[in-house]
Amino acid sequence: MASGGKYVTSVKDYSVEFYNVLIDYAPRLVSALIILFIGLYAIRFITRMAKKIMERKEVERTLAEFLSSSLLWSLRALLFVTFISKLGIETTSFVAILGAAGLAIGMALQGSLSNFAGGILIIVFKPFRVGDTIEAQGVVGTVMDIQIFVTQMISGNNETIFIPNGILSNGIITNFSIAGKRRADLVFSLSYDTDIKKAKEIVKAVVLNHPNILKSPEPEIMVRDLTDNAIHLAIRPWCKNEDFNCISSDILEQCKTAFDEKGIIIQPYAREGAK
To answer: For the segment 49-104, what is each residue's pLDDT rounded down to a tens digit?
Structure first.
């Protein structure tokens, strides 16, 4: 009976102690929850306003998304630290643990951090934009999306290509879209029996009659090289970016047809030095 009485007394003591702690802790818990809910609402309001301001300023879409996302998570982290601090939890050791964890994660994700830094450089300095046609890392395609870690491209045969931003930002990038126009570099190999002046007049007529070839800069038609086997006649017309492939194909086809009609012989390819 004595043992049972001690057990009941002990339970009562613990209940009273728990009740007292709860009463003392309740104001702190309520204030922390209020801060949490108000903070979440404020973060949502601030990020929305930031997005609207960036849209009004016509900030690059990818950069705007990155900045708004960074702002969102930074404010959330600040709110979380404030919340646990209001609950009475010591934040110094907690922040130290987070710092050590961040360092370990950073060392484990060095490649990803390189791609992240490359993405920031691409977004800030804009060597290309979405919709540009570029050549990089040995591939040519149209940029479909610039993400933080990778850039997505579509090749001419509809292949989707993802290039890590780290190597992309540190490599050579050829942007065919910035200037708005391109020059086609076409070459015909003609027989040494060819009347060069006549051949150039034929090519000039074909080039000037094409509706999509620009008059300025003027197209160039010149002898590029004299090899052991042929005369290399270079044709260099200018066109808009979107007409480039069409122009190249049309000029080759129309010049070949005109040469055949005028009796000009196109020299078959022969390897230099071949016997």
So the answer is: 988 888 888 777 767 777 787 788 788 888 888 888 777 766 666 666 666 666 66
Neighbours of 109 (CB within 10 A): 12
Is pLDDT above 50 for 211?
yes
Radius of gyration of the chain (CA): 35
- CB-based contacts of 186: which residues, under 8 Å, 6+ apart? 234, 235, 236, 237, 248, 251, 252
CA-CA distances (angstroms) from residue 57 to 53, 54, 70, 125, 129? 6, 5, 18, 17, 17
